[in-house]
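User: Predict the complex.
Assistant: Input components as received:
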Amino acid sequence: MITIYIDNQPHQIREGQNLLAACLSLGFDLPYFCWHPAMHSVGACRQCAVKQFKDENDQRGKIVMACMTPATEGVRISIDDPEARAFRSTVIEWLMVNHPHDCPVCDEGGECHLQDMTVMTGHNYRRFRFKKRTHVNQNLGPFVNHEMNRCIQCYRCVRFYRDYAGGLDFNVFGAHDSVYFGRQTSGILEGEFSGNLVEVCPTGVFTDKTFKKHYTRKWDLATAPSVCIHCSVGCNIIIGARYGRIRRVLNRFNSQINGYFICDRGRYGYEHILSEKRLHGSRIRENGGHKELRTNEEILRHLTPLIDGKRFIGVGSPRATLESNFALQTLVGTENFFHGVPDRDHALVERVISITKMDPTLTPSLDQVKNCDAILILGEDISETAPMLALAVRRAVMDEPRRHLAPKYQLPLWQDQALQEVTQNKPGPLFLATIGKTRLDNLATHRLSAHPEELSHFGFALAHAIDPAAPDAGETSAEMESCVKSIKEALLAARNPLLISGTGLGHAALIEAAANIARALRHQGKNAYLDFVLPHCNSMGLGLLGGRPLSHALEMVSQVDGIIILENEISRSFSSSRTNQFLGAAKTIINLDIMQTPTSDIATLSIPVASYAESEGTLVNQEGRAQRFYRVVPENPNLRESWSWLVEMMALIKNQPERLGKTPHEITTKLAQVNPIFAPLLSLVSWGSETQKIPRESHRASGRTAMTADISVHEPKPADDPGSPLAFSMEGCHGDVPGNLLPRYWSPGWNSVQSLAKFQDEVGGPLRQENPGRRLFESTGNPIKNYFAVSEKIKKNNHGRWQVVPLYHVFGSDELSAAGAAISERIPDPYIAISAKDAAQLNLLENSRIRLIADREQFERPVKIISSLPAGLVGVPMGLPGMPYVEPGTIVDLIAIPDHRDNEK
Amino acid sequence: MLSELEKNEIGEVLAHALPGQDMSIDVLAIVQKHRGWISDEAVIDISACLGTTPSNVDSVASFYNLIYRKPVGDHVILLCDSISCWVMGYPTIRGHIEKRLGITFGRTTADNRFTLLPVACLGACDLGPAMMIGETLFTKLDEEKIDHILKEHGWQP
Ligand code: SF4
Ligand code: SF4
Ligand code: FES
Ligand code: FES
């Protein structure tokens, strides 16, 4: 700790910060634009000026930029100094010269950093009387709206999009007072982190295009802390709603996971809730037709004869909460509870769980990933399956050279521009061993493109090279041998080497090979990490609950009275023929889901349920971190949470044990009591007070008394939310609440997302009382010594047939987000991918048609030629709308379909 | 498409440097020398031969005043609007040129003969007001001198 003097008052701060960060951490209101807690200082905007004095006798001092000046022991500055104040208000006057002053029609209005800073500096009278420069805006695609005239040239957007997230299709153009931030030509912003521009830009240049469709000012949005459900990373988000309608998603800070950013799948995926495919009414099949069931009583009346005294099996879901899965498991019994995922995924998730359990200290948080100094990715295309993990990897790789060059040049780590110069943006060690190209390729020190078997073979060989006690993989090609050697050296030279793999390729040996490498590195005394990507937001939770593989349900279905399917589309786990076989054999299908799916279409009874924004529950992310999310809108009696229907059913079925509970809180408590692995959840759901709840509405929410005035002038009682720490109200505990329960970031004078700093003890650090979720695995204290045996040999020849490898798309592979309007515009058309070599052999051109024939499945799609794909593999995009499920590793035939158009010519 | 001549000249410059965004200015200057300006298509061609993105090339191209991203006339008049020249009567000179040519800053005459652009200091501050056409510097401008220079460059009253 060091002492600095601000306006002659001493303050204790941590060493190594800049003055702006220090002032903000101490709670001072010092205006700034270009500095960002995650992107640090460039000194571009000149807004953060303060007066610095040589010593206590110095009366004159000099103006310095706080964000560019180190806060060193004894430094004396003044924020209040009249000259510094005048300087700051002049700067903002310049920055605003061309600003259109169009707050009333600007989506940023009311949560605008520029508004806040303008008020803070006291620049409140406009003197500029000349013509303003104007720009032509661009159509940047479905996610981000562009209104360039509002720009104040702080450069945060390019610094985020290009420097931080590595995007290429965005830039800054022009010079002096005509600087333009956008694409070279109008068109879709392709980077999967583009939505962060909305929060990064301190003005209304970049705003959320989906929010525009149902816009509401920030103060009128009811908000609640939630968790993203679109991949296994589990980023934290804030969902906003008004009049019961979900309107937008913003990042929610979690120091251990996503920090200041989220990906576009997470930001825009919410639109599935508003999609036409959303189920609203219950339907029962009767006499060959459908009957709509309008009330809960009516549903119950029809439900009773269906289930009373009957034997059901249940299909759980990796995208439903722990609570709902637990309710289903309890309802049908563990022996009748099946995981609604492909058997292969089921086995892989179990493997990952057992590895993680054995030594949880191996698993890094996303924040720890950022500090790893050599990374090997084995098999998983993380840019598509876990975008924020890919961003953390990018940061780790770009920051590694900074971390070791900064001391040499005596540069603090927040000197962003200087460090870019010093490192020349050369990335640190990153090794990719995947089947084809990925979006991290341009950072890779070395990349290996090979068959899944070759990749795991390589992994085993590497583990053996690092620790000879690890089993030998056997013969290795010369190319791979040299690869093994150089990667081994890089990993051993690192302090925190990181291995990343996952379930994406559907290949167990890869996971074991990755575990061997990480363990071998630990044997060599390295603080190695091992991270696995899982298929869905709650794959880990479902796996931990226990249950049987889905194929066993196929055998059982004809022996029972029916299936209860929880938030699951069966055809995503089974081939079409098996799906038909399974559902066809069921006497009764009770389907609980958010969206209309092929399964809901044929269900005997289809009951629509609440989406994540409309429920409270727990998800367990890929690191084993349980996180709680809260409903944003009051319960809609027609869209209850799945567990609540399952609890109803329990009461209906005779001889059922006691009810699980009436609130999510009670169900979670029950789960924590009956299943020891979930015991830590108790601490996650405890909240001291039923009377002092946290209001979801801001204290400025308008219209409360007018909203229903057309019906009655009496203001309705706010909806209840028993057991929850949050209330549907404007009143309650606005003050110091645990960081993970903050429904919004707001502080007097700080209306924008920048107000987040007011909830941290140190800007960029954890929130006060953060409680960033609970890791469910406790370290046993005994590091694992043994290794997985090398499980398979490389199959060299498929004899003129092809091996299926799954390919993923950040926009498209996730079921729910793909149903959102904006994201659906970004989904690629279905295709079948083959290598350039195979395409030549089959005489196929891009987009010519090809038929894939597997044992239980065949279909025709246009060809996509991927030159980086090894020959002998056929890439099948997973989960893309219009693509059936094909099991990874299946050996299939491909037949070129003659092009009829050619014949016509 | 870059011409053979352009390609050769670019090849010569690149032979002594690493390709990439850093070489944009040199290559842009070559192409502009041959064509007078840089079209959108030229930006794409240049980015291809530098192995970088069009946006990287355009970011450089649009930064420099003297790289023209729009067609210009036969003669580009660069009139200094910086402080010394301002003091020495730049506003009058500007008004006069604009009146004579019937165009404002950033425009080209209908006959495509002149483009008028501002420039920040020509290094002739002691001799202001100053302007430049092609490689020639004109100093101590007054209205008469302007008329004379314009006529010399093909302006007809
Ligand atoms: S667009 Fe926004 S973020 Fe980018 S420079 Fe302008 S004000 Fe800053
Ligand atoms: S990385 Fe995954 S969890 Fe995070 S925002 Fe994106 S989809 Fe959601
Ligand atoms: S915040 Fe310090 S110069 Fe921009
Ligand atoms: S100010 Fe005009 S030439 Fe320098």
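The interface with chain B takes residues 168-175, 180, 183-185 of chain A (CB under 8 Å).
Let me know if you want any component modeled separately.
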